[in-house]
Amino acid sequence: MKIAIIGVGLIGGSIGLAIKSEVGSRDRRKSPLEKSKVKIIGIGRNLKRLKLAKKIGAVDEITTDIKRGVKDADIVFVCLPVGLIAETVKNILPYCKKDTIITDVGSVKQPIVSEVEKFFTQSLNLSISQSPAFIGGHPIAGSEKTSVKYASKELFENAVVVLTPTNKTDKKSLDIVKKLWKKMQAKVKIMSPVRHDKILAMTSHLPHAIAFALVNLADNFEFVGNGFKDTTRIASSDPEMWADIIFNNRTNVRQAIKRIKFELEKIEKAKTKEELAKIFRKAKEKRDYYVHKR
Amino acid sequence: MKIAIIGVGLIGGSIGLAIKSEVGSRDRRKSPLEKSKVKIIGIGRNLKRLKLAKKIGAVDEITTDIKRGVKDADIVFVCLPVGLIAETVKNILPYCKKDTIITDVGSVKQPIVSEVEKFFTQSLNLSISQSPAFIGGHPIAGSEKTSVKYASKELFENAVVVLTPTNKTDKKSLDIVKKLWKKMQAKVKIMSPVRHDKILAMTSHLPHAIAFALVNLADNFEFVGNGFKDTTRIASSDPEMWADIIFNNRTNVRQAIKRIKFELEKIEKAKTKEELAKIFRKAKEKRDYYVHKR
Fold first, then answer.
1. ipTM metric
2. Domain spanning B2-191 has what CATH number?
3. Which of A109, A82, A107, A280 is nearest to A208 (CA)?
């Protein structure tokens, strides 16, 4: 089995490491990797980064030639910034086998999935069974660090990976991608691209917008405590990557910003200490229950 | 020297541990603790908590009788919720020595300092030199955990402690409190109570308000990543304590909320990916420079 990873950064590199650590592991029987030796090829534009990925063992081979990289691949992981994913899928299609499964790790799903599907049906003019399959995916894992040097085979352990099939998605391919993520110790959740983007706007994209806004507003940094540091950690994330994500999910993020402004107004307008305490108690109980315990 | 700590939680307990670890340390000469043996008395209402404080070595003696506790104390640290500090200072005054120095650790300074000073001049009808001194203080340290069991002698190492004298403050007493905090390895900054409250509204109180608001807004907690977890860590803080802080600094916090809403609107209204990237780049550069490096 040949697996191609386009974009070997934190996520792409960790996929390589996680798959390789599972090859030959104890319960191989359950694995989609069982039938043959797995070869992982890392594809990118930056040779130095690719060499580092190979050195740390995230990939077996490397190439800057995307066409050659995806040739004969059974599965292609597109681990690029959100804004480049659909275009890249289009570009590699002519060079993939008919039964290649292409999947991605983008933090936004609806624009990518719909653009790819439009292209599959319109431009290729092929029935689903004759063309490579595309499975939208998003591992909810990562950090503000983006380089392959932070890649880890444990990055997806107990992380949720959302797969976003539509009625056009090939079920068998979905199942293979699902099993592959499970082998990487992830918990797979299935939902529509639209629902994914609504949820993630609130649980991920809004917190990033807030962290960036809070840092831009602040000064007197010698008086920040650990609270400020933690609250704004993700403001040290890659700004281009996050502009890409938030722009591609702008309708949902704008809605989320409207809602957080409304929540903040409740605090702004609270007239008594008890009114504030009620708001804060609700939050603490919710967080301690849902987040602390996980 | 007798030091009384009223309220032996995370902060009060850590003060006890930090002072005791400094007693007899190498450069005793520079210490205000040099002249005599230091005895620390922990004062509180909850005997179980006080016993725990003694057991971990944060205090030498304990009492639930506040009058007896502050008797003969050279320095009194009031480590209570913001809303109880001024009242407690008033209550203990008749039982303190004339040269006792009273200081506090409240996260809000202006309402406390002005109430205490009003009482000192009006009710006592004493000149400054005849009455105990009050020094407003605020160690910018702590966490969402509040119990004495998390107390640590290192809590104030390299932490900023703000002291907020006014034109009525006794300079000699200020100097003693300053030296004491320095012995606890803190970096002492001096500013007015008003300036302290304006700055902390932005660097501490607003991030807490945001974290509480974000958790109240969120659902679908199985899809939160580390970003959300870190951004909302402080929403697991003590809600009563934070209602107290934010209520006592409400004018500044309301102003800060207005300003963060405006910052968020910039993201909401951004029309292009590049506009977003510009906002996010500014934040990342600022945070990497001011926060990462510290």
1. 0.89
2. 3.40.50.720
3. A107
